[in-house]
Structure formats: C-alpha cells, structure tokens
Design goal:
- About 50% of the residues lie in helices and about 10% in strands.
- It is α+β, with helices and mostly antiparallel strands and about 200 residues long.
Length: about 200
C-alpha cells in the first residue's frame, strides 16, 4: 500500500462551464496492490483509490482502503433493496410515505444481506444464527424435506438451491420470494394453532 501527497484535480466540465473552469478538487491517491507470485500467470489485483480526505500516514491510507472494501457490501445492500424487494417499484405519491416504506424494507434487506454473508463466510454456524425464529426454521425444514442445521442449510433451503456443481448462487429475487413464501407458511401454521379442534 502507498499513498500520494495531497493533490488537486482539475475541475470537471459542468453545465455552462468548460473543463477546468471551476475550483480544483483536493484529493489524495491511495494505491493498494497484491504482490504477484513469480510462477503465476494472473497478475495481482491493484486499486487506485481517490479519497477526498487527507491521507498523511499509513493508518489513514489503510482506513481509506477499508472503506472501499465495504463498498461492495453496501452495493449488495442496495441491490437487495431495489432488485430483491422492489423498492423502486413502489408507487407512493409523497416523500414521507416513500421514506417510511424504504425504512421498513431496509430492515428486511439488511437481514437478507446478513444471511447471505454468513452463508458465504461462516456457513457452519448453527441455523439459529441465520436470524430466523425457531418456528421459521422448523417450517423451513418440513417444507424443504431436508435437515436445516447450519446457516448454509437455511440459505439453500430458503432459496430452493440444489447445490449442483454448475449452479451459481441464488439472486436477490429468489431469496426474497423464498422468505415471503416461508412467512406465509409460518403465518398459516400460527393461524392453524388458533383453530378450535373438532
């Protein structure tokens, strides 16, 4: 990892103004790269990060790189919110209603992202770590006709993932539909327990 002294970028072209007509943009450049192995045909990754915060030491450069690493998880959250939960398809007429709906959907999107990350990074955690209540886990095991003991089992059963060699990971829409279907089944189970027995 390396970093540059403070720089000033030429202002971009704006409406009614040519390139460089505005004030320069202060920034720092942080370079992060992998050392390529001598026998590897594939070059290592390299990032050149532009940062609007001053970078004067290694700790600040490292903080900039860590922020950039978290960008992918943030992008995934937005994809879950938009693609999976359909936040962009809401036909609400006022900003207040849209903000309230997105706030509620954000909680669900965050739970989905958390479940997917755990299924990738900590797949052997117990199923209870997936963030679902015990009733959800029991219904999911009955519906999928297979044991649901780990976070990975929960994720695969929720998505209907068969785990074949050529299958890619399920997308956000598949995960959202699986969760909605499970919620309906659990609601049915809860209602069924309230029926009077003949």
């Amino acid at each position: 990892m390396s970093f540059s002294p403070p720089l000033a970028l030429r202002a971009p072209q704006g409406p009614g103004a040519a390139t460089g007509k505005g004030d320069p943009i202060p920034c720092a450049v942080v370079r992060v790269w992998e050392a390529a192995e001598a026998d590897s045909a594939t070059p290592g990754l390299e990032w050149l990060l532009l940062c609007d915060q001053p970078v004067t030491d290694f700790a600040q450069a490292q903080a900039c790189a860590r922020q950039y690493v978290s960008r992918w998880l943030i992008e995934d959250f937005h994809k879950a919110l938009k693609t999976g939960l359909g936040a962009e398809k809401l036909q609400l007429q006022t900003a207040e209603r849209l903000f309230a709906a997105v706030a509620l959907l954000s909680v669900v999107a965050l739970a989905l992202v958390d479940m997917r990350e755990k299924s990738r990074l900590q797949p052997d955690l117990p199923a209870t770590a997936a963030g679902l209540e015990a009733t959800f886990l029991r219904v999911l095991a009955l519906r999928s006709h297979r044991p649901v003991q780990t976070v990975r089992d929960v994720y695969d059963a929720l998505c209907g993932h068969l785990g074949r060699k050529g299958d890619g990971p399920p997308g956000w829409q598949t995960l959202w539909r699986g969760l909605m279907s499970l919620r309906l089944l659990v609601e049915g189970v809860r209602l069924a327990t309230q029926l009077d027995q003949p």
